[in-house]
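REQUEST
  id: r-88c1
  op: predict_structure
  target: Potassium transporter TrkA
  payload:
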Amino acid sequence: MACKHPHCCADHQRRAWRVTRRPVTYICAAILLAVIGAPAQAATPEDGRAIFGLVGLELAFLEALALIALACVFVPLSRAVGLGTVIGYLVAGVVAGAGLSISFTGDPEELLHFAEFGVVLFLFVIGLEFRPARLWAMRGTIFGRGLAQVMTCAALLTSAALLFGLEWRVAVIIGLGLALSSTALVMRGIDESGERNSTFGQTAIAVLLFEDLAIVPFLLLVTLLAPSGEDATLAGNLWATAIGIGAIALLILIGRYALDPVFRIIARTRTPELMTAAALGVVVFAALIMASAGLSYAMGAFIAGVMLAESSYRHEMEADIEPFRGLFMGLFFMAVGLSLDLSAVAQNWQVILLAVPLTISLKGLGAYGVNRAFGTPHPTALRIALTMGQHGEFGFVLFSAATSALLLPGDLASVVVAIVTLSMALSSQSDRVYRFVSRKTAPETIDEDFTDAAGSVLIIGFGRVGQLVAQPLIAEGVPVTLLDHDTDRIRKAHRFIERVYFGDGRRPEVLAAAGAGSAKVIVVATGKPEITLQIVATIQRKFPDAALLVRAHDRIHAVRLASEGVPAEAIIRETQLSALALSGRALHALGYPEDEAEELIAQLRKLDAARLNEQIIAASNAETRDAVITAIAPEQIRRS
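RESPONSE
  id: r-88c1
  status: 200
  body:
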């Protein structure tokens, strides 16, 4: 049957074309890469031949272009399959090392040393985020639970490395490096699930903050453990320590009293590029002070960032530094992949495949035990353990520093880098593993007791919307029965309301016990669209006599509810009324008379309702419903 709305089908076809043409885009990019990379493959530093007339610096530009092309191919592919950008950069570096004969492959350490400036910039940006007041407010969670989790995981992993026969200093560095999680991957998962303010999100973020801080002393530890090649005396150690403390104090004083006035003077010039240059100059200056004292220049950048965290120019500096940080960090990860000893990886592939699940299990066990010891409920502790079980990009930083300091052999560094890389690739499956494991564990429940449930109104879902729905009814003395399936929410509800009943609104027997058969009105205010659809289907099948009102997540959810037989006037989109109210206030603030603004909002609301009704009618045909719903997109509403 032909669609009654050609524009919907056309839009659906365009979306399908956008999906199907992606492989074509990647193939074209690969062909472009081959064209660009072929000259670089043919070029060798020994013969000194010109490629397309390019020699010297021009040939170096061609090699840089080859690396850029590889990154442009593999980073989008890695993101498309859910592995993140870090894995894409690593793979691009591995391919460059294995398939291109360029100067970087002959001496990857030179590129790696240059790209370490990205780590310096990264720690400077981290320092900008760590305002002293913020650190102090979160000190308990960060320096308590974060320290305990990192040290426990490090102890377990170090013990495993010692049992494997590694020298104790090497084992310590490997244990510390593998104890750190991927900030990028964990934060991306928390943001995508919208759990930044949940118990799980807050705990994970606190531990990540400690790990971001811990990389600074870990890098310093590499310097202390590294073989110096000469006998150190007590006086020499004391003098070196005094120099280091003096350098840190000097940097703190400069950051506290000099940097803000300098940036104030530069800002008055109103020259953006000068501000960017000054921000980069601060990073380089701090790094040089630390390097001159024999300390990590990454520590200098971090201290400079912390000292500027309270500055009025913090956001400006962060915006100026961010592009350079991302560029150099990408180059750093490519250099790590480029310096990877593939022969060492091939010779130790059995060890790597055995070590990946072992190290992830040890780290997850440590994280679970620490969080349970701090009173975290089992489901949350289990999810933290699975989410943070992978190793992270800070491991690359630490292992690279240890290799440069002759503390970690090159072949062993390649093996542990491969372990970190595989663990990060597997981290995309952590949520799936958690769902599988949590199904086998008994979920927390509350006794379902509905002996005194006899309300005229049954509200299913007592979240932010259900609470607002219930309060006016309770204030008027209307008997209300409140039903929710979240045990934490039910406990919190006791603070301001007498009782919320525990139960799953998708179960007919639960709805019957909660009084759905005698209720005059049933309000479905659950937050997950799929669960709402299931509850609505159960109510319509078992309790059709009650007036049904449903909270819709958005327009698409509203059309789906209407397709299930819910009247359009009984569907309330959760953001519609608040958005129109804000729009009306905006018009009034612009000088529109209040009655004119209200009339305009009323007209737009009427037009929006008419458009929604058209979409509901179009979606009433089961054969074309999916195409119509898929084609729904934001559209400008215009007054006649």
